[in-house]
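Lab notebook: predicted structure, single chain.

Context: the supervisor wants predicted structures on file for every construct in the current expression panel, including those that have not yet been purified. This is the next one on the list. No modifications to the sequence; it matches the entry in the shared construct table.
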Amino acid sequence: MSLISTLWKCTFSPRLFKVYEITWNGRLVKKSYEPRTLERWGDQIVICFAAIWSISLYTIPLVATFFYQQRGSLTDNIYLLSKLAAGAGVILIASLAARGCSRANNPIYLKFLKTLNEANAHYSAETKEELHKYEFEFWAWPVDFKINDVEKDRPRDKLTLEMIATSSGRVKRQTSKEFIFTLPCKLISYVVAHTFAIKMIYPGSISIINWAFRSSHLKGRIELIEEGGERYKLLTADNNEIDTMLVDRRNKTTNGNTLVITCEGNLGFYETGIISTPLYKEYSVLGWNHPGFGSSTGLPYPLQEENAIDCVMRFAIDRLKFSEEQIILYGWSIGGYTATWAAMNYPSIQSLVLDATFDDILPLATTVMSSSLEGLVRNIIRDYFNLNIAEQLNRYNGPILLIRRTEDEVVCVPSNTLAGNRGNMLLNKLLLRRYPHLFLESPECGAFLTRLLSADVSTKKSIIETVNVDEQRCLELIAKDIEKNGGTIYYPSTLGQNCDSKMKQQLILFLVTMYMKDQPSTHCAPLATDLFNPGWNPASTVSIKQ
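Prediction complete. Output recorded below exactly as produced.
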């Protein structure tokens, strides 16, 4: 490589953070990369420019207002701005040049750059192994998996909420007059959805937050790598790059042959998020960051979210060779949207675990906004952020575990009330769909379910004592219902069809305790490891009976 080429590549190559070395006894040792003075100085200036640019995007309206008020001296302001821009440009160019020269004289960085270039030229198992010895900016990482390589020219048909609404006839076609009348509202909805709303719903996609958390992300990623983690870059159908981390424990631990795919919340990242709980239970784990979170590109609009989790699933199945039956989907909070989307499109998964998740984002959104804006909020949610988790959950027939936080302050309407926890509605809608005969012609059973889910610890204990569930009888009825379908679990079920009101209440109480577990904590507290499990499989009742 010529001197000019080396300087150019060193100037615009990624920042290097850590270097990993394997000792003689097989231990992984990390060493911080120590940039020289000029490189450190140049990096800091470039980072400052990037941060200022990110912040400036949000201050454009204020700057424009200021210049409008100062329009009498517009020429002077333009001249001043041009001088500032020229000075900033000189500083930026000087910083880049200093960084490039310093890196070009650093043998550690030159060795890394050579490894990176070889990996980009010929990405193989050998070059990837060498590349994994370095921790650097993810944008320069080669792509490990492209979903288009799997689907080729024949992409799979994917089930979406839009398709469900269309097929059920819930989409109303507008007349020309109605379209013109609603056009101003639609324009406002579009602008708000693509500016403020996306940042309010997914604050983890804000650039400055990603920038502020970069050191904790780096620390968390290094800890995962020390536990045997391997980082991958996935390319989605819409060309977003998704940052993922795999901890593969197959044939190493008791639960290692089962893969848990984690779906984080609206301010969650795999580096510091829910991945720790299944890791502690010795599962293999695949974590990923939403589009626009951490090092993943794009923005977390529903379609991009769906493409991201679809790519993660195809990667797990086609590249990592986990079967659907070996996969547990684990979604926390708003991560329940991608988890349930994957569950309804990959129905053979082992189970679905939803922690601190709501049924639909609309009730939560309308609560935090002024009542005068309810119509606008409704349009924005339904047109751009239709996160109807319950609708997707009811398209999945496999084992489910719901975890409710009894002191949840986020997914409650009204807030800080157990009765207002939207996890109650999620379970309510699930039971109504799976076991409708428990509630048909028995309005008191619906009221009983509402009272049960709203009850505190002491009240719930009193209800349990009053109902006095015959667990063995409940299991027998569930097994009998499954046997009527030839041993296949089918929903909606006929369970409770010929039962009296008291037996139905016993069945409802039994099913609530099987489908939902409570954790006495707030929304963001880590999940207790003993609560994480694949959940209850009704098919087990048949084997118990036999």
